[in-house]
Amino acid sequence: MSGGRRILILGAGGWGTALALVLNEAGHRVSLWGHDPQYTRFMAAARGNPKYLPKAEIPGEIEIITSLDPAPEGLEAIFSAIPSQYLRSALQPLRAQLPGSVAIISCSKGIERGTLLFPSEILRQELQASRVAVLSGPSHAEEVARRLPTALVAASSPLEDAGFAQRLFAATRVRVYTSTDHRGVELGGAVKNIIAIAAGISDGLGFGDNSRSALITRGAAEITRLGLALGARRETFSGLSGIGDLITTCTSEHSRNRRVGFRLGRGEKLPDILSSTPMIAEGVETTRSVQQLARRLGVEMPITQEVHSVLYEGKPPEQAVEALLARSTKEEEIIR
Question: Does the global pTM surpass 0.90?
């Protein structure tokens, strides 16, 4: 292990733990930090994470820590896997301990409530970070932890920081591609969760494959429209962080956001759904942020609007579907 990099992972949820397992396998020296001292100490003793990643065994080489005072010596990279809505509050007490000069890889998928900032922007603000890359793509923690083949994309401008992140995964079953379109990669990872809620609602209502495929396809068009308005490249949304992540999140049993939608479609209430699981479905809050962002930019996002109506305005899911079907007919728009 002595030849590996010194890496800190912020966030001991499912994704943070899966990243720790992969990067440890790559030969790096990994520290995993959790915000909840009591649970993090339990993880360190049990060498597992039953709440967020059941059945995963955490090797003894991975250091599980509750404090960053001091930060790991010789730190070369920080992976941030803290959920978007908690990212700023988690970072603020840590900013004095964390060096902003090391490479920081943002792995959160969402948009902050109120500010409408992306996780990479929050990291730059709070840590005064100069080297930030975004890592995204179809990557359920449950499968990554089982060493199932996975492909991701790391994005930064300039490309150098994404290339550094890519090399950290060498010799693992996670293949990382690079891109300079950090905005497009980050947006795709955030908005696909909203479409996954819509797909879950469709499945919960008992609609079939046709309905789900239509939502995925038109959802991809919504994401691309918003991305272009934000200066992203259209081809990004045909890649891993676009259609790749969208398909996985809308169809997989592992998808938290799809599960939320499914239970809504079955008639359950959102507060009951959210209170029944420790898992965080980023799409619930991201829906509010994306709707505000779309209105600000004048971007049409009908699926997002209807998901917002179900989540926050009490609209019955059946009526949301009817509203989408009742929209005026038009020529199919293919975002090229």
Answer: yes
